[in-house]
């Protein structure tokens, strides 16, 4: 349980390199997103996927262009990881289809480890001590982390050749 007095309310949010995850969250009877950064928590009345879309636009692209880029780079079309901004190293992956309201977006960069609870649930442990319980199989989690790492490495490799 999260104490709501530890959560700052923001009407909009643009991702920073400190983003760890975005999760659907209800606060004071309003649905939105709990945004967890390394050292802060925010509530925003927008869905996680809406925040992803707005952040893509803020950094000069759109969500569908980012999805198309991911498909072109690593040939993934479903539950695609998304590049929010490669210069800042902001890459996130969805836990389900982004069309579903329960979709959680996670930055693999801050995952320290995970613990399998059962065949359909894992607990993520982040470097800052935060934990997050997910209704996802270990296989699906590892596949999403692998896809995100593959996308990130392809971008880093491409960018290093351009220098």
Give an account of the 3D structure.
InterPro entries: ComK. This is Competence protein. It holds the Pfam family ComK. Strand 3 and strand 4 form a beta hairpin. The strands form 2 sheets. A 7-stranded mixed sheet has the order 1-4-3-2-7-6-5, with helices on both faces. It has one domain. The mean pLDDT is 92. It is an alpha+beta fold.
In short:
The protein is α+β, with helices and mostly antiparallel strands and 163 residues long. The protein has helices at 48-58, 63-74, 138-162; strands at 8-9, 19-27, 30-37, 41-44, 82-85, 90-94, 105-106, 111-118, 121-126, 131-134. The protein contains 3 helices and 10 strands, in the order E-E-E-E-H-H-E-E-E-E-E-E-H.
Can you count the beta strands? 10
Helical fraction: 25-40%
Cα separation of the termini: 47 Å
The helix/strand series, from N terminus to C terminus, equals EEEEHHEEEEEEH
List segments where confidence is low: pLDDT < 50 over at least 5 consecutive residues. Answer: none
- Mean pLDDT, all residues: 92
Sheet with most strands: 7 strands, mixed
Q: What percent strand?
A: 25-35%
Rg, Å, rounded: 15 Å
Count of DSSP-assigned helices: 3
Overall geometry comes to globular
Strand pairing plus helix content: what structural class?
alpha+beta
Give me the side-by-side strand order of the main sheet. Answer: 1-4-3-2-7-6-5
How many domains? The number is 1
Organism: Bacillus coahuilensis p1.1.43
Protein name: Competence protein
InterPro entries: ComK
GO biological process, one term: establishment of competence for transformation
């Amino acid at each position: 349980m999260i104490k709501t007095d530890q959560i700052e309310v923001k009407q909009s949010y643009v991702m920073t390199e400190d983003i760890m995850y975005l999760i659907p969250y209800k606060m004071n009877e309003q649905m939105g997103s709990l945004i967890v950064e390394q050292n802060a928590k925010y509530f925003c009345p927008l869905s996680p996927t809406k925040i992803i879309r707005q952040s893509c636009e803020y950094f000069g692209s759109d969500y569908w262009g980012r999805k198309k880029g991911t498909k072109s780079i690593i040939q993934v079309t479903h539950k695609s990881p998304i590049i929010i901004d490669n210069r800042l190293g902001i890459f996130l992956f969805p836990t389900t289809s982004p069309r579903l309201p329960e979709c959680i977006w996670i930055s693999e960069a801050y995952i320290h480890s995970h613990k399998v609870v059962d065949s359909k649930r894992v607990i993520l442990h982040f470097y800052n001590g935060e934990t997050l319980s997910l209704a996802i199989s270990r296989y699906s989690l590892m596949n999403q982390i692998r896809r995100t790492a593959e996308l990130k490495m392809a971008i880093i490799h491409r960018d290093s050749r351009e220098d």
